[in-house]
Amino acid sequence: MDLQYDHQTVIYALEACHTEDGKDLIAVGGERSVEVFAVTDTACIPVVSFNIGSRVTALAWSPRTSSPSVSDSWNIELVAADMDLRLWHLRQQPDLPEDKLSFGGGLTGHRDKIVGISFAGGRDSDESERYVGTISADDRQLMVWDLEARVDAPVQEMESTSASPPAAARNPSFMSYSFQHPLVSIQSHTGTSKIFLVADCRGTIFLVDWLEIMDGPQPYQPGGPDTLQLYDPHALAESSRGRGGQFTGSVAWHKNNQNEVAAVYGSRFSLWDTNCVRGGKPSASGNTFVDGGNRIRWCPTMDEYFAISSQSPSKGAIVEIHDSRYHGTQPHTICVKPRPHIIRDFDFISLPGLSPRIAVAVGRSVIIFPMGESDPEQ
Fold this sequence. Notes:
It is built from three helices and 29 strands. The protein is mostly beta strands. The chain has one domain (3-370): YVTN repeat-like/Quinoprotein amine dehydrogenase (Methylamine Dehydrogenase, Chain H, 7 Propeller). The strands form seven sheets. The protein has a five-stranded antiparallel sheet with strand order 6-7-8-9-13, with no helix packed on it.
């Protein structure tokens, strides 16, 4: 059964929650707000809405998140970024006012659009709940924020209906690391609490030891905090010829296997096994959309499958499902909406007892359907 959730505005960001107690939750970001809803086998149920007053560009769930369907002491917690270059720490608990902390704007954060957010990895660790990594395309910075440490720099805006300390006391501290090229993607993994996977627009993927960054701001240097580099030869070649798409590319770190990484750049995807580095070259590659792929995601429950969304509206809002064991075969293609619709974002969701589903943001709606079905429109 297909489900649909409608937002008041166009949806620009979508992130499913993959914590053990929050697997039925999805967050979407629109023109002015972040909304969270829960998914059952028959319905989408609104949970909470945070008004931040600007278009959302990226979202990340806190590992502390738990759903109302799991616990009476539920906790909705995430970090969002907006077009005004602000970051928002958003939290809602039962019987308590919402808590919204804005930080990182102006001179205390990124100088260009924030395109990726990730809480630190590790399982049940202090670091995974406390530290958040953010990236921006044009300023080429990875910033790691300590949500518990505060500095005396003013916060751009702080809205909370609860009694809160002065804004200057609530501004999270951060350290930064500079890269040579614009950044497009950031990921963490529950298997390690010290590594961020960061990708640039030219096809280089860095596994960065962010704990080294916390020792102080650092410019890019070979052999710096990046403990390992992976390369997409096709993307590097296209960039050197000036053919690569500007600030495009997407990377996914397999949720159940720390050694598996997937990326899409333009019309090609690549897979890496970090157990066999091969000089950073991929272990497998294949073709995807001629007009280029937009986002790549691993399925969290059926380990061999990953999905890629289309970047161009020329053929409609399309998702390809690939089997990593047979990367040279034709993918299963799902047309969610006909042209000129486009997929802004998507993610997998895994409800207990049900086959994997895909949640796709198209226009003002989130459409949810089983991974193996044909076109939802039919």
